[in-house]
């Protein structure tokens, strides 16, 4: 009987393999067909398409106080694609015109102004490529909630756009005379990209500003920009830092205070420090900086801040006749470098205490490390912040004397 069953199984085996193979082939073909149909459904239409010749691409935006009560003036810098010509400047484009146009409209809200421009132009504003958002100091001292809220909620607006505060009208900043770029907005955006090379200007995106504004501890800051006229041309310059509390501008930081702020917040990049010696000036280049800020709780329960800075530098220019590569001179330069950094921090801390604005993030650091203590302090932080002490530890190394060891003009102590 067993032998009989084995013979039957062997005869049926090819038939079973045939049907099994056909089943897998049909299943594979069915799955492939369904996958193709799903792809077709996903790619068969462009329901959200926007034709380029129907869009007004915005590269720069300015907000000013409107002429009428409770209004604001929106200025949009729009690319004129017909004037763009690679290899030529804005003044020498295809027909001698500018590569952009500034369009302004005054209304009681940002959205109303954006929609109002459609009454003047045949294209709808498109903010996805916006590079800079400039707000006038006049508007910043009143209320920024309307402008910031609108650009934060809008899906087209990007959160990494640079935010700046103009000392005059924002619309005038967007009308500067540019030479190396086709559009003022691109010129300003490029300037912001270069600020890490001097450590004298804060670089703030819309995302950074909104996070600081929403914070109950940290005061928001933004770089300031102004228009200057020379040789009959108007050019912009980055100068000072605006300080905010509760969405309103309350004061400014100068060049020294801003650099101190960057030291504390670990945002100082490269730059330079000029030190005076008994033989003359020596210019030191800042190569790399790292800083760490942390709260420290004392035995009596009080909290102070501790800042540790590591700075690598090099001798960039020796305007003396003294050999600065000697060990005693290197140590002297390092000491003066520490004094300069510490002085910047003290000036910055003094101005922050005057404004009662925690621009350094002391409160945020306390909240992270000592949450229970922060719960007791947060309601009175504006009052408590000026009394918080800062202890600094500055470590400096001079890594190089540059391409020269001795000064070009020899002399000094042998």
From TrEMBL:
Pfam family membership, one: Spore_GerAC
Ranges that cross the membrane: none
InterPro entries documented for this protein: GerAC_N, Spore_GerAC-like, Spore_GerAC-like_C, Spore_GerAC_C_sf
Domain Spore germination GerAC-like C-terminal residues, every copy: 240-402
Membrane topology: Lipid-anchor
Annotated GO CC locations: membrane
Compartments where found: Membrane
Annotated ranges, domain Spore germination protein N-terminal: 49-227
Keywords: Germination, Lipoprotein, Membrane, Palmitate, Signal
One GO-annotated biological process of the protein: spore germination
Family: Belongs to the GerABKC lipoprotein family.
NCBIfam families in the cross-refs: spore_ger_x_C (TIGR02887)
PANTHER family (alphabetical): SPORE GERMINATION PROTEIN B3
Descriptive protein name: Spore germination protein KC
Organism the protein comes from: Ruminiclostridium sufflavum DSM 19573
């Amino acid at each position: 009987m067993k032998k009989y069953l084995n013979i039957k199984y062997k005869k049926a085996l090819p038939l079973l393999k045939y049907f099994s193979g056909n089943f897998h082939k049909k299943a594979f073909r069915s799955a492939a067909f369904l996958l193709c149909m799903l792809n077709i459904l996903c790619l068969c239409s462009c329901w959200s398409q926007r034709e380029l010749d129907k869009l007004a691409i915005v590269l720069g935006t300015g907000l000013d106080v409107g002429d009428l009560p409770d209004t604001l003036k929106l200025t949009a810098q729009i690319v004129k694609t017909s004037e763009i010509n690679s290899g030529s400047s804005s003044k020498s484009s295809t027909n001698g015109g500018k590569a952009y146009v500034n369009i302004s409209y005054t209304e009681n809200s940002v959205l109303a102004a954006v929609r109002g421009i459609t009454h003047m132009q045949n294209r709808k504003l498109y903010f996805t490529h916006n590079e800079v958002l400039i707000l006038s100091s006049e508007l910043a001292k009143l209320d920024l909630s309307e402008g910031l809220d609108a650009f934060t909620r809008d899906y087209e607006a990007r959160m990494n756009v640079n935010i700046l505060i103009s000392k005059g009208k924002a619309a005038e900043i967007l009308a500067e005379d540019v030479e190396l770029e086709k559009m003022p907005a691109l010129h300003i955006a490029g300037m912001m990209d270069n600020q890490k090379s001097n450590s004298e200007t804060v670089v703030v995106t819309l995302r950074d500003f909104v996070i600081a504004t929403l914070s109950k501890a940290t005061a928001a800051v933004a770089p300031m920009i102004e228009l200057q006229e020379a040789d009959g041309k108007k050019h912009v310059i980055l100068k000072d830092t605006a300080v905010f509390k509760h969405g309103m501008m309350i004061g400014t930081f100068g060049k020294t205070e801003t650099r101190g702020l960057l030291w504390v917040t670990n945002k100082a990049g490269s730059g330079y420090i000029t030190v005076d010696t008994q033989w003359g000036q020596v210019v030191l280049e800042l190569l790399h900086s790292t800083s760490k800020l942390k709260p420290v709780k004392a035995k009596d329960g009080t909290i102070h801040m501790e800042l540790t800075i590591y700075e690598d530098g090099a001798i960039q220019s020796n305007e003396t006749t003294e050999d600065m590569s000697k060990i005693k001179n290197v140590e002297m330069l390092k000491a003066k470098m520490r004094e300069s950094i510490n002085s910047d921090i003290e000036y910055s801390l003094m101005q922050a205490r005057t404004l009662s604005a925690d621009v350094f993030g002391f409160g945020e650091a306390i909240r992270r490390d000592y949450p229970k203590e922060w719960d007791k302090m947060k309601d009175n932080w504006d009052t408590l912040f000026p009394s918080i002490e800062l202890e600094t530890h500055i470590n400096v190394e001079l890594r190089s004397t540059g391409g020269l060891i001795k000064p070009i003009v020899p002399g000094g102590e042998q």
